[in-house]
């Protein structure tokens, strides 16, 4: 799963030469053997490396504050979102919904790696949501639809249908 | 212990004893005093009671009405107590909804069906203390006859249905007394769910209601629901009679299961067994073959389905239609949808009071429909669902969640709560459904939906004995069991179609309620057989 993400990320970044990854451990953490240094271990580490390789540092945040927010969401993806239990899904969606109330992207107004990796990570949850639930977490759905349509992002994942109009009366969920 | 101590102890003992004795004496004195007090009180009360009760003959418990006499007395209904009757002295028979005593006054709220009025009894030259006390002690739900003067009030009495008047009681008699402990409180039974949770007040759960149905049916909400249901039945009959339909009665004890063997009740029939009819289907069709052209019937339907859902009953009232047509089964669909629209209009125009009463406890959006009724093809519906992200096959039947989602999509797109879905896939319909002439995978069958839930399943029927036999064999049905049915088509049968609705389900969905047991007076389901 992580390997597919990295390959999609490479395509998004326009990196000509795809890297060869291996995995380690039961969790299948991705590993990138670097010719000029120690191996890079972990999805976030490798992704950040790829971004620097592609010379697109703005994807990690423009200001110090933005960079911190991006790192926070990347960590959230790995520690809380991956392998979360069924009970936690609603909490995660509720928190994300509240967070996205006044933001276009996770880092505010700019598209960053946080959006990409959170999108990859949350896809398997959103694809299973019923229409009524997608309306309940309206901001998550809005952000998700935006990211999945962002040029070059949605490589390996099937599109999720998001309806234009609300079909459930609001406040009656 | 030394002798001194012993002596001391002895003295102590004596002192203790005298202390004990003192205490005992005190206690006895207290007891005696209390007793004396009580006796004095009783004596005083007795005296009070014996004091001249000048109103003795203006109140009391009437002897049981055994038709002893024919009183020429007109009783006014609570709903007719309006300012026009101000200053008139009238008799009212109603139930005690609530009673509250405050010093020298007693406030009663009298109730009859959906209507309530306030009544006042005050100590004065018309009512004695004993009379007011008697009124205050009457149990809730007792039926009383009250003679009173209707008085206009300046400030509207918000809590009653008759807000502009109140009764000043002259005479009050109990016709039928209620036991003091009621199995459920009527105020609790009409409280909206949310309000109950918020204010920490009780609401009554469904099982308690159904176990004590007689009391539950007295609530204003229940009265409104069943009056509206009676309206549905009446509008159904009136509309169809006006269209030239004939009402028929079909047998409910039958020899072979009509819809399929699984969900049928068996009854012992002398030396053999018989079944309770799952639908009047076969007999409706036989009436068409007998040249009645357009028939309908209203009667019980028995389904032995072990479904414990919000919309299934084992016994319900079926309103069934069957009609011969000229060239196309859409003539029948148009007739049925027009009937439904007439029912909706009739309810909207004549039962607003009832709809508002139900909405007070169960708020919902008003029922919307289009004229002419919206008709979608099954293929379109599948496309709409797929566009909303549902994965399903083109010839797959609609599951209940998909039906509900489709209902919401249709509501959003066309703004209607009522629509018809035409041309269902043949594979999911019963054996007597006529296949589509242009596409063997589909059929001339249709379902109708209210608020996203199915209320009617219908189709053009196969009226050719040959084709019917083929279809039955294709479905693996024992031809012997349906021989009489197939035979009825051998001697000239007109093309015909029809469908049936459930009275309880239609009432439930029209009002936007959520459980069919609320619209069935004495519901039957796999777990309930009484009352």
How is the topology of this model organized?
The complex is a heterodimer of chains A (173) and B (531).
Chain A: H1 2-13, E1 21-24, E2 29-32, E3 40-41, H2 43-53, H3 64-81, H4 86-99, H5 113-126, H6 131-136, H7 138-148
Antiparallel strand pairs in A: 1-2, 2-3
Chain B: H1 3-50, E1 59-61, E2 75-76, E3 89-102, E4 105-112, E5 115-122, H2 129-136, E6 143-152, E7 165-176, H3 186-189, H4 193-199, H5 206-211, H6 213-216, H7 220-242, E8 246-247, E9 253-254, E10 266-269, E11 272-276, H8 281-289, E12 294-302, E13 315-324, H9 330-350, H10 352-361, E14 374-377, H11 378-387, H12 400-414, E15 418-422, E16 445-450, E17 453-460, H13 465-474, H14 483-487, E18 496-502, H15 503-511
Parallel strand pairs in B: 1-7, 2-3, 5-7, 8-12, 14-15
Antiparallel strand pairs in B: 3-4, 3-6, 4-5, 6-7, 9-11, 10-11, 12-13, 13-18, 15-16, 16-17, 17-18
InterPro entries (chain A): AIMP3/p18_C, Arc1-like_N, EEF1E1, Glutathione-S-Trfase_C-like, Glutathione-S-Trfase_C_sf
Protein name (chain A): Eukaryotic translation elongation factor 1 epsilon-1-like
GO biological process, one term (chain A): positive regulation of DNA damage response, signal transduction by p53 class mediator
The count of domains of chain B is 3
Query: What ranges of chain A have pLDDT less than 50 throughout 5 or more consecutive residues?
Result: none
Assign the structural class of chain A, choosing from mainly alpha, mainly beta, alpha/beta, alpha+beta, or little secondary structure.
mainly alpha
User: Would you tell me the overall average pLDDT of chain B?
Assistant: 90
CATH architectural grouping of the largest domain in chain B: 2-Layer Sandwich
What's the alpha carbon Rg of chain A, rounded to whole Å? 17 Å
Classified by CATH, the class of the largest domain in chain B is Alpha Beta
Number of helices of chain B: 15
Q: Report the principal-axis shape of chain B.
A: elongated
Biggest sheet of chain B, in brief? Answer: 8 strands, mixed
By CATH, the topology of chain A is: Glutathione S-transferase Yfyf (Class Pi), Chain A, domain 2
Low-confidence stretches of chain B: none
Mean pLDDT of chain A: 88
Strand content of chain A: 5-15%
């Amino acid at each position: 799963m992580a390997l597919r993400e990295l390959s999609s990320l490479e395509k998004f970044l326009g990196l000509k030469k795809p890297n060869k990854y291996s995995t380690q451990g039961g969790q299948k953490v991705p590993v990138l053997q670097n010719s000029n240094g120690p191996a890079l271990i972990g999805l976030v580490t490798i992704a950040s490396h790829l971004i620097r390789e592609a010379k697109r540092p703005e994807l990690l945040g423009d200001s110090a504050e933005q960079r911190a927010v991006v790192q926070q969401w990347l960590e959230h993806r790995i520690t809380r979102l991956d392998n979360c239990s069924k009970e936690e899904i609603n909490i995660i969606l509720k928190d994300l919904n509240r967070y996205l109330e006044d933001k276009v992207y996770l880092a505010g107004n700019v598209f960053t790696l946080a959006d990409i990796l959170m999108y990859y990570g949350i896809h398997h949850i959103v694809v299973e949501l019923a229409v009524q639930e997608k309306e309940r977490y309206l901001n998550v759905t809005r952000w998700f639809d935006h990211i999945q349509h962002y040029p070059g992002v949605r490589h390996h994942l099937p599109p999720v249908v998001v309806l234009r109009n609300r079909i459930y009366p609001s406040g009656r969920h | 212990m030394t002798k001194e101590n012993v002596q001391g102890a002895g003295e102590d003992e004596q002192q203790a004893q005298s202390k004990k004795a003192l205490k005992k004496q005190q206690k006895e004195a207290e007891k005696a005093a209390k007793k004396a007090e009580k006796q004095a009180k009783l004596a005083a009360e007795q005296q009070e009671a014996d004091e001249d009760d000048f109103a003795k003959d203006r109140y009391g418990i009437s002897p049981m009405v055994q038709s002893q006499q024919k009183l020429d007395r007109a009783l006014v209904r609570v709903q007719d107590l309006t300012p026009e009757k101000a200053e008139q002295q009238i008799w009212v028979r109603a139930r005690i909804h609530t009673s509250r005593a405050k010093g020298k006054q007693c406030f009663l709220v009298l109730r009859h069906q959906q209507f309530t009025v306030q009544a006042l009894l005050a100590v004065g030259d018309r009512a004695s203390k004993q009379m007011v006390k008697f009124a205050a002690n009457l149990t809730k739900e007792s039926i009383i006859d009250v003679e009173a003067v209707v008085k206009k009030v300046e400030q509207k009495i918000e809590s009653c249905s008759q807000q502009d008047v109140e009764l000043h009681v002259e005479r009050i008699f109990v016709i039928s007394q209620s036991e003091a402990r009621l199995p459920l409180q009527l105020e609790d039974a009409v409280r909206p769910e949310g309000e109950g949770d918020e204010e920490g007040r009780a609401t009554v759960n469904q099982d308690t209601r159904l176990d004590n149905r007689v009391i539950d049916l007295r609530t204003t909400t229940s009265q409104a629901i069943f009056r509206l249901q009676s309206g549905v039945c009446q509008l159904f009959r009136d509309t169809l009679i006006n269209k030239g339909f004939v009402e028929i009665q079909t047998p409910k004890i039958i020899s072979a299961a009509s819809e399929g063997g699984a969900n049928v009740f068996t009854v012992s029939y002398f030396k053999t067994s018989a079944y309770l009819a799952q639908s009047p289907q076969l007999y409706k069709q036989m009436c068409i073959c007998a040249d009645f052209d357009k028939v309908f019937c209203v009667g019980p339907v028995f389904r032995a389905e072990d479904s414990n859902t919000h919309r299934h009953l084992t016994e319900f009232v079926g309103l069934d239609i069957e009609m011969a047509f000229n060239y196309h089964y859409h003539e029948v669909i148009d007739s049925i949808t027009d009937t439904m629209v007439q029912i909706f209009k009739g309810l909207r125009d004549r039962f607003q009071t009832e709809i508002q009463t139900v909405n007070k406890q169960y708020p919902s959006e008003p029922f919307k429909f289009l004229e002419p009724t919206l008709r979608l093809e099954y293929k379109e519906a599948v496309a709409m669902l797929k566009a909303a992200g549902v994965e399903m096959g083109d010839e797959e039947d609609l599951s209940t969640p998909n039906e509900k989602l489709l209902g919401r999509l249709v509501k959003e797109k066309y703004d209607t709560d009522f629509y018809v879905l035409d041309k269902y896939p043949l594979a999911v319909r019963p054996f007597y459904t006529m296949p589509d002439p242009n596409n063997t995978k589909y059929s001339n069958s249709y379902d109708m939906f209210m608020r996203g839930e199915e209320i009617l399943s219908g189709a053009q029927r196969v009226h050719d004995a040959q084709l019917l036999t083929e279809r039955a064999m294709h479905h693996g049905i024992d031809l012997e069991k349906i021989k009489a049915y197939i035979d009825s088509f051998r001697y000239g049968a007109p093309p015909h179609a029809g469908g049936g609705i459930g009275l309880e389900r239609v009432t439930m969905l029209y009002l936007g309620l959520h459980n069919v047991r609320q619209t069935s007076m004495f519901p039957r389901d796999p777990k309930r057989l009484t009352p």
